[in-house]
Amino acid sequence: MLFLPLRWLKRRYQINLMSPRRRELERLLTEAWEQPIRLVSASTSQSYDEIYYASDHSKRLAVVRVNRPDSPLPDLIGPDAPGAPLDSSGRLNMEWETYSKLSQVNLSPKPLWRTDDAIACSWLPWDRASRYLVRHRDRFWEVMQCVIPAIRMMHDQGVTHLDMNLGNLLLNPDGKGVAFIDFEFGPVDWVSREQLMAFDYLRLIADCTKRRRGGDYLLADPERLLPLLDQNVEAEARLADMSFSLTQLHRLTEHPELQKSLSSVFRGL
Known about the structure:
With 269 residues, the chain is α+β, with helices and mostly antiparallel strands. The chain has helices at 3-33, 88-102, 129-135, 140-156, 193-207, 215-220, 225-232, 235-239, 250-253, 256-263; strands at residues 38-41, 49-55, 60-67, 83-85, 111-115, 118-122, 127-128, 169-171, 178-180, 185-187. The protein folds into 2 domains: 1-72, no CATH class; 127-263. The chain has a 5-stranded antiparallel beta sheet with strand order 1-2-3-6-5, with helices on both faces. A 3-stranded antiparallel beta sheet has the order 7-8-9.
């Protein structure tokens, strides 16, 4: 299959294109942290930004997000989307600002260093929740018991995510600590904070319907989710008009029983 070698070649081109800037950032970080720093690409996949692991000779120290000069403009999302993808500087600013707030309550990596086109944040040796649940589907409800209150804590810090899926959550090895990552969206003009808070919960739940991520446990007993939501969802989020969200969260419409259960909490759904 030709597309695999072509994808690999394109990725090698992108990595090589970033090499001069990578070397310069290694120099800057070495000076700032007063120890030799090496940056290694963290992913073989394409994204708007290049992500590196920063290491000294013995251990990994940080994750570094760097704007790519060849990055395309973010794809526009449909008219009912409550958030829009940010541009290069907007992504860095958003991530730095949110990590500055959330790291104070242990809900994100810590921001460590920044320049115009890059930020460095502490590295957490934790799994993404999406990967964790692939291996531990039977722990689905344990994870939800931890994640739903963490979303409320995030909101209490004045932060909403807008892309709240299991891939943007880190879980510590025992599955009980949560960190939020990848803040790449900003709210559109027409959406209210109450709608954004409700959307975070609903976006996560829609993602949880995927079978490989424990969806069988959720769909077998959707009522089990209600006490957890009742304990955590903000009063104003319960009343927010969420009629727009079903075009974005089509997975909920595929499961009428789950949608019915959720509507008892989110009255505007």
